[in-house]
Each structure stands twice: as structure tokens, then as C-alpha cells.
Design a protein that fits this description.
Blueprint: H1 4-7, H2 11-14, E1 27-32, E2 37-42, E3 45-50, E4 54-56, E5 60-62, H3 80-99, H4 103-109, E6 111-115, H5 119-135, E7 149-153, H6 165-178, E8 180-183, E9 186-191, E10 195-200, E11 205-209, E12 212-215, E13 219-221, H7 224-232, E14 235-236, E15 242-243, E16 256-258, H8 269-288, H9 311-315
Parallel strand pairs: 4-16, 6-7, 6-12, 7-8
Antiparallel strand pairs: 1-2, 2-3, 5-13, 9-10, 10-11, 14-15
Helix pairs in contact: 3-4
Length: 317
């Protein structure tokens, strides 16, 4: 079991040898593109920091599709705090089941529901199943951890929809061999402390009694995207992702760009070119025997779309 420091070390620690970098802890409230100022605060202590070039890498948050009240009972998996909370809930369910004498309550404690059959949900369902089958086997006396029920729920017609039907079908069969119950074409209509309500494609509804629920069904862009889109005229897609220029900058400004840690929308030309650029970088590294990627400007005929000279410095690690 890895500690949180091994998974996500502090930014200050990573950059401690970079003498020209200062790390400031705070929450960004606003960005003024006209005056090139970032407005942020540390609790009730407000600050403004000017910039020449700005890279926004605000990450993504969990989307509950308009049902934010679900978050109380089904946390997501977007931060280290989320992961620690889920870990505590999963282990607590096994511990409480050990001393519970009511069979119905024990069954509810040993039922785990994962919402969302994308990569995160598939991995989470498999990990819980492996935890029950192997890691915790023979550690309890009143319960058999291998009897735990793990249910993976998704509104799509297959597991891992972006990866194609063949891989999705193979993944579903692997999960079912492990003992994971897969419910597809199923929409979650309600989540509460004691369970989850589901509507299937025929319109019928049923309820799964479960103490531990995990939400891995959707993501949304940071609220900073709305702030910058309003000022720059950029478009937002339905998940709040920003439609950027081919060089990842915002329209009407070349001094603000998006980092790849917050993926732009697939409608963005830079997104569509990403795989070919990655392959080109790997070929250059193999030819030169170097681990340092080299970013070259693609040929441009338009002055407006010309690769900015400062791009490599903005995107370098």
C-alpha cells in the first residue's frame, strides 16, 4: 500500500532544486487577462500576482450530472483526499461487518457499488474484488471477505466505451470472472446513505442496498475555464473544457495557454495532433539517445497561427 507522498509528492518538494521557481499555496479566485494578474487567496489573506506568460493547469473535478448531493454518499476519485476517504470507507465496511450480528446489515456492509465503467471505475471494481478475494482473506473470523459483492454500474451499453466493443467485451468477461457484477444500460437515479437506486433501459427500477458507493462516472473542467472563456471569447464544451487554439493558447491572447494536465476538448486541433507529436518525439529520442523531448514548430503559412517562439519555454517541465 503506497503512501500519499509516494503517489503525489508535494510540488514544493519536486521543485526544490529549481532556484528560479517560487511555490505559493493558495486558491485562485480570478484571472485578469487584460492586466495580466492572477488573484488568489490563502484563507482570508488576499493577493495579486502579475505574470508575463500564464499556463493554467487547474485539473478536473468530479461531475454528478446535476446531482451534486450524491457526493456526500458516493465520493469521487479526483484527489488524494478522495482516495483516502474511499480507502477508509472500504476498510470500515469490512471492520463493522466483522462485529455485526444482523445478516441483512452485514450483507449491506459487504456490498460495494462502483458507478461508471470507464478506466477509473473498472480499475476500482477490480481492486475491491482483489482486496476481498486475496488481501483480506483469512483476516476475519466472523465474516468471509470473499463473499463481498462488487457491482459495476454504467449507463452505456459496454464497459470502457472509448476503447471499442472488442476490448470492452473482453474487459467485461475478465471482471465477471473475478466476481464483479456488471450492470450496463443502467442509470443511477438516486444515492443515499443506505444504497443506490437504478433505472434500466426498459424503464424498470431497482435498488441495491450498499454502505460503500464509489462515483467514477464523469468529469468536468475547473471553474477557471469559465472565467477565462468569458474574457478571451473561447468556447466551452458540455463538460466545461476549453476549446483552445492549435498551439494550446486562448483566442485573442498568446500569453495564456493550457497545460496537458487539463486535456482540451477533442474539438481542439492540438488534441487531434497529440498522438502523432508523441510518436515523433519518441523517434527523436531513440535516434539521439536522449531522454529530453524536443518540441519543434510545425510548418505554418499563416502569421496568426505561427508557432509562438516562447511556446517551448512555456511547456517545458
Amino acid at each position: 500500500m503506497l503512501s500519499e507522498g509516494e503517489i503525489a509528492p508535494a510540488t514544493r518538494e519536486i521543485l526544490r532544486r529549481q532556484r528560479n521557481v517560487q511555490v505559493l499555496l493558495g486558491l485562485v479566485d480570478d484571472i485578469d487577462l487584460t492586466n495580466r494578474v492572477v488573484k488568489w487567496r490563502f484563507h482570508n489573506d488576499y493577493h495579486e500576482t502579475g505574470y508575463d506568460s500564464l499556463i493554467v493547469a487547474a485539473g478536473a473535478g468530479q461531475s454528478y450530472f446535476g446531482n451534486d448531493q450524491f457526493a456526500t454518499f458516493a465520493p469521487g476519485m479526483k484527489t488524494i483526499d478522495d482516495a483516502l476517504e474511499l480507502r477508509a470507507r472500504i476498510f470500515k465496511a469490512f471492520e463493522v461487518a466483522e462485529f455485526t450480528t444482523d445478516p441483512e446489515e452485514r450483507r449491506r456492509l459487504l456490498t460495494f457499488v462502483v458507478v461508471g465503467a470507464g478506466p477509473t471505475g473498472v480499475e476500482m471494481a477490480g481492486q475491491i474484488r482483489e482486496l476481498a478475494n486475496s488481501t483480506l482473506a483469512d483476516e476475519f473470523r466472523s465474516i468471509d471477505s470473499t463473499t463481498a459483492r462488487v457491482v459495476l454500474v454504467d449507463g452505456a451499453s459496454q464497459v470502457l466505451p472509448p476503447f471499442g466493443k472488442e476490448l470492452g467485451e473482453r474487459t467485461r468477461k475478465v471482471l465477471e470472472r473475478l466476481g464483479v457484477e456488471v450492470e450496463l444500460n443502467s442509470i443511477v437515479t438516486n444515492v443515499d446513505e443506505d444504497g443506490i437506486e437504478i433505472r434500466d433501459k426498459d424503464g424498470g427500477t431497482h435498488r441495491i442496498e450498499a454502505v460503500c458507493k464509489v462515483w467514477a462516472a464523469g468529469v468536468k473542467g475547473s471553474e477557471l475555464g469559465e472565467i477565462l472563456a468569458e474574457q478571451s471569447g473561447a468556447e466551452l464544451d458540455r463538460t466545461n473544457r476549453v476549446i483552445v487554439e492549435p498551439d494550446l493558447t486562448l483566442p485573442a491572447t498568446r500569453r495564456c495557454s493550457w497545460s496537458a494536465t487539463w486535456p482540451p476538448s477533442p474539438r481542439c486541433p492540438a488534441w487531434r495532433r497529440a498522438p502523432s507529436r508523441a510518436r515523433a518525439m519518441r523517434r527523436r529520442r531513440s535516434r539521439r539517445g536522449s531522454l529530453t523531448p524536443t518540441l519543434r514548430a510545425p510548418s505554418r503559412t499563416s502569421t496568426r497561427d505561427r508557432w509562438p517562439p516562447s511556446r517551448s519555454s512555456r511547456l517545458s517541465p
